[in-house]
């Protein structure tokens, strides 16, 4: 849960909490964007347990994804899929 | 050098290693405090490619592993209560407690659910007003902003059947505790890039100055690690002790201040027990008094939990960096990722699991020792 996974914002919804949809290499999740107020559709963010924490560029996102894919179970665990 | 060809940029990896060899004149011990970094170091064999004398010590960088046994036992006890829906990140389910794990509670009919984010736990509470929904709020600074927001959001929207079992830990006090240990051998640290993306690195500056240790904020890609190690060795060789940032692509000095504000509104700093290490002052987070109504530990008053580690498990020494998984008699034999006896074998971020996934052989069967 600690590693953080990068994805691309595909939708932003402003409500009680700033929420959005983030695409993680084909898997979509609802993500809280309250901590990245300036990140917008098309931007890449690193998401920790459903919260975007930092904004990164596309190349950085790809690198981090490659490392996560090499750790057994890491992607599934970061996306909350039952181990 | 078979490993090097697997790098994204083997040529750059070779250059970094050559520079490291040219820079190193003496032995140095460097600790990484991030389970993702441990995994990359072991899997890519970086620890074995480094110049002789540069030793990587694997620190307590796995949030699953350092969650104290007492908290696991409390979680197991609360999850077994009738009327409770117990929610958790998936990697906590198989962490062995004294008498069993959360998965066993689930198998016995307990309502234990894996959630991807604490906000899902708040939603489950809203949808089940007649049930008590408890969320296991564990982790380092990377998950604290999410858990803080979940409680603040539940409070703001009046979801009163929601509570959190909090066992948050903080990295800088752990580094200080390691440095205060008279037996400490660590001379430089790689700080976890993602922790610093949240918190920045101002907290590390007084540590670097006071203990005269270089601390380099580092990512967890193989090339990041090589560069972070090189930056640390350069400081050590020239007698500098500063905080430097290798991971400038994602980390700024001040971190994410919006996230830090939420953490400060929901949590206060407290003493925390680290599994295998013991109590470390000011090393954890607990709810602020105004939010004590959301504290599952208070709501369910689970006192009198008796805890005991598996007798064979030497995870304490592993988390302190004084032993390797291969030093454990159970490693790879009675303890595997499928049958974990201790927490470091459960999570992919644990040192024992990282060794096992990389195929490191148990001591008794390895030839080079
Ligand atoms: S190999 Fe298993 S029993 Fe040995 S220290 Fe690691 S987790 Fe504990």
What does this structure look like?
The complex is a heterodimer of chains A (83) and B (369). Helices cover 22% and strands 41% of the residues of chain A. With 83 residues, chain A is α+β, with helices and mostly antiparallel strands. Chain A has one domain: SH3 type barrels, CATH 2.30.30.140. The longest helix of chain A has 13 residues. Chain A is globular. Chain B has a domain of 120 residues: Rossmann fold. A six-stranded mixed sheet of chain B has the order 4-3-5-6-11-10, sandwiched between helices. Chain B has a five-stranded parallel sheet with strand order 2-1-7-8-9. Chain B starts with 9 loop residues before the first helix and ends in a 12-residue tail after the last helix. Iron/sulfur cluster binds next to α15 of chain B.
Which descriptors would you attach to this protein?
heterodimer; A: 83 residues; alpha+beta; SH3 type barrels; five-stranded antiparallel beta sheet; 2 helices; 5 strands; globular; B: 369 residues; alpha/beta; Rossmann fold; five-stranded parallel beta sheet; 38% helix; binds iron/sulfur cluster; Hydrogenase_HupF/HypC (chain A); Hydrogenase expression/formation protein HypC (chain A)
């Amino acid at each position: 849960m600690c590693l953080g996974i990068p994805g691309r914002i595909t939708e932003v919804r402003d409500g009680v909490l700033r929420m959005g949809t983030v695409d993680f290499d084909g898997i979509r999740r609802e993500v809280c964007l309250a901590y990245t107020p300036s990140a917008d559709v098309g931007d890449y963010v690193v998401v920790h347990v459903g919260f975007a924490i930092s904004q990164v560029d596309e190349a950085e996102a790809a690198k981090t994804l490659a490392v996560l894919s090499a750790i057994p179970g890491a992607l599934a665990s970061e996306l909350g899929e039952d181990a | 050098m078979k490993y090097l060809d697997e790098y994204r940029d083997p040529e750059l990896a070779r250059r970094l290693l050559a520079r490291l060899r040219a820079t190193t004149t003496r032995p140095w011990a460097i600790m990484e405090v991030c389970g993702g970094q441990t995994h990359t170091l072991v899997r890519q064999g970086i620890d074995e490619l480094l110049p002789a004398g540069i030793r990587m010590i694997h620190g307590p960088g796995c949030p699953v592993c350092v969650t104290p046994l007492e908290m696991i036992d409390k979680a197991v006890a609360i999850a077994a209560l009738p009327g409770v829906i117990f929610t958790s990140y998936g990697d906590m389910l198989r962490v062995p407690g004294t008498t069993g794990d959360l998965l066993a509670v689930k198998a016995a009919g307990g309502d234990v659910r894996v959630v991807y984010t604490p906000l899902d736990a708040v939603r489950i509470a809203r949808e089940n007003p007649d049930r008590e929904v408890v969320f296991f709020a564990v982790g380092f600074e990377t998950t604290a902003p999410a858990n803080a927001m979940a409680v603040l959001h539940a409070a703001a929207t009046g979801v009163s059947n929601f509570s959190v079992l909090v066992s948050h830990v903080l990295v800088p006090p752990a580094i200080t505790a390691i440095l205060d240990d008279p037996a400490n051998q660590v001379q430089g640290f790689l700080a976890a890039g993602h922790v610093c993306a949240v918190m920045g690195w101002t907290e590390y500056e007084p540590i670097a100055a006071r203990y005269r240790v270089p601390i380099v904020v580092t990512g967890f890609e193989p090339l990041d690690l090589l560069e972070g190690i090189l930056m640390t060795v350069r400081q050590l060789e020239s007698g500098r002790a500063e905080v430097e940032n290798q991971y400038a692509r994602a980390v700024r000095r001040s971190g994410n201040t919006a996230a830090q504000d939420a953490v400060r509104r929901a949590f206060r700093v407290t003493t925390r027990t680290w599994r295998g290490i013991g109590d470390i002052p000011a090393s954890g987070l607990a709810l602020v008094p105004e939010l004590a109504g959301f504290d599952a530990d208070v709501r369910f008053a689970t006192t009198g939990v008796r805890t005991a580690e598996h007798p064979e498990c030497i995870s304490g020494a592993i988390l302190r960096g004084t032993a390797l998984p291969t030093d454990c008699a159970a490693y790879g034999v009675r303890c595997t990722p499928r049958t974990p006896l201790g927490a470091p074998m459960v999570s992919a971020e644990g040192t024992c699991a990282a060794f096992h996934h990389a195929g490191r052989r148990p001591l008794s069967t390895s030839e080079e020792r």
